[in-house]
Amino acid sequence: MSKSLQAIRGMNDILPEQTPLWRYFEATVAGLLDSYGYRQIRMPIVEFTELFKRSIGEVTDIVEKEMYTFEDRNGDSLTLRPEGTASCVRAVLEHGLSGGGQVQKLWYIGPMFRHERPQKGRYRQFHQIGVEVFNLPGPDIDAELIVLTWRLWGLLGLRDAVTLELNSLGSSAARAVYRDALVTYLEARREQLDEDSRRRLLSNPLRVLDSKVPQTQALLVDAPRLEDFLDDDSREHFAGLRARLDAAGIPYVINPKLVRGLDYYGKTVFEWVTDQLGAQGTVCAGGRYDGLVEQMGGKPTTGVGFAMGIERLVLLLETLDKVPAELARQVDVYLAAFGEAAELAALTLAETLRDEVAGLRLAVNAGAGSFKSQLKKADKSGASYALVLGEDELARQVVGVKPLRDEGQQQTVSWQDLPGYLAGCLKQH
Ligand code: HAM
Fold first, then answer.
1. Is residue 398 a contact partner of residue 390, using CB atoms and an 8 Å limit?
2. pLDDT tens-digit profile of 93-121?
3. Domain-wise residue ranges, the chain
């Protein structure tokens, strides 16, 4: 196939074999967020470029080199959203959702776009589920966000595979003092820094802490520590969060080098990481951004949230064999009919069953075929039962119910009793 007719590198089709797992994951998260009283918001995928520059920060990797930015027909500079927080804050401001100190607990789901180098777990179009909470300044809500993700790992069977890393970045004033101390320390060792870190030293020195280069990491061992510069308010907030996590029995490690790649954070930052996915091990990440709403033109409004990468969590479920077996089953029941008259009867019988058996997933054979070929298709569909309707059954107004997965005998059941019979069978599966 010519290259221009293929999907863009780093942008993936999610094929029918994969969608059941995606839908299971999405439904699990949506159900969980419903149960905590969070409400969904849906924002556009494209925004003015300025929005991301102002919120994520001009000298971040995302804004400097990863955005899909283009001019539209009006000459406006637009960008495919690289993340959801900026758009969510914009929407909240634009619709006055946080006015008068109103609390908002919101979530969103959808594709995000970053021009990164694609590899396992890192794509150019990827999907996030994100949560943002406005006007709750205390550590109790930071703790709730972590508690609810912990519950999610429990529901998905992932608790043993993830670790919570936690840090506090302090207030912006405290961070500025720390930044100066760090720059002084690193400037004196400039020659030993890797090239990327030297560049960051000028533009965004805290990101040097993030460096993966061993020599730079070695240099950082004796560097000034952010925690020694924390303001009292941030210190108290962080202690409050830790006390709540301890009370809830949620394990965590403090990672003083966790600074995150987006500029809007202050106080709490956290990441859930796994060592099961290779280099792209962060499955969920977030933190507090109390200054962002004001920075974008709103009244002072606190914010805190996180986003998880769906591709990475789906990969993790697959890697750890945590995919529920029933997802392989497309349908519960496959109705096979032989002969024109039986086919006609099958059509109405199927509709009756769909009316009367709650949640039934029923496929009706299409394209006729011999007994053998129809049963082969029934088996391939993953159905637990095949319903057999031939001329003889038609005359007697019955069907043969043939178990496909267990040893049981084929039963003959009248059309009238069939809905109740199937409902009973499905309950056992
Ligand atoms: P982020 O750390 O840039 O934060 O992304 C959050 C998560 O999205 C990552 O931990 C990862 O699981 C997933 N992710 C990011 N980039 C990629 C990629 N190229 N391919 C696959 N997955 C990826 C944010 O986006 C913040 N808006 C989170 C937040 C919300 N903070 C406060 N509220």
1. no
2. 999 999 999 999 999 999 999 999 999 99
3. 19-170+230-319, 329-421
Quick one: CA dihedral 270, 276, 280, 284, positive or negative?
A: negative
What's the confidence (pLDDT) of residue 326? 87
Task: Tell me if residue 161 falls in helix, strand or coil.
Answer: helix
Residue-wise pLDDT tens digits, 317-344: 999 999 998 898 889 999 999 999 999 9
DSSP string, 246-301: HHHT---EE-TT---SSTT--SEEEEEE-SSSTT--EEEEEEE-TTHHHHTTS-S-
Could you please state the CATH topology (level 3) that the domain comprising 329-421 is classified under.
Rossmann fold (3.40.50)
Kindly state if the Cβ of 309 falls inside 6 Å of ligand 1.
yes
85 lines ligand 1 (CB under 6 A): yes
Would you say 234 and 224 are in contact if contact means Cβ atoms under 8 Å apart?
A: no
113 bridge partner residues: 125
Residue 204, CA atoms < 13 Å, CB-side half-sphere: 20
- What is the domain class of 19-170+230-319 according to CATH? alpha beta
Task: Report the share of the chain in percent with pLDDT over 70.
Answer: 100
Return the ligand 1 atom nearest residue 124 CA. Answer: 19
Nearest CA to ligand 1 atom 30: 306
- Using one digit for the tens of pLDDT, what is the confidence trace for 349-388? 999 999 999 999 999 999 999 999 999 999 999 999 999 9
